[in-house]
Amino acid sequence: MEKKIKIEGMSCAHCSMRVEKALNAIDGISASVNLEENTATLTLTKEVSDTIIKEAVEDAGFTLVD
C-alpha cells in the first residue's frame, strides 16, 4: 500500500533526510521524502498506525499535516 503525507517545517536537504531516516526506521515502512513538495511517500508492507507515523515525524522535529 502507498500513502502520501504532507509535512511542515522542512527547509533543506538535511531536514528531509532526517524525516526520511525517522520514517524508514519504522518496521514496515519504506519512505521517500520530496523537499520541494514537503511530502513523503510511504510504501507500507504491513499495517502501521497513523499515530506511529505522526510520532516519528514529530520526534524528528517536524509537523505532520492532516
Note down, in words, how this protein is organized.
The protein has 66 residues and is α+β, with helices and mostly antiparallel strands. The chain has a single domain, classed as Alpha-Beta Plaits (2-Layer Sandwich), CATH 3.30.70. Helix content is 33%, strand content 33%. A four-stranded antiparallel sheet has the order 2-3-1-4. The longest helix has 12 residues. The protein is globular, with a radius of gyration of 10 Å. The model has no long low-confidence stretch (mean pLDDT 97).
Keywords:
66 residues; alpha+beta; four-stranded antiparallel sheet; 33% helix
Q: What's the arrangement of secondary structure elements?
A:
Layout: E1 2-8, H1 13-24, E2 29-34, E3 39-44, H2 50-59, E4 63-65
Antiparallel strand pairs: 1-3, 1-4, 2-3
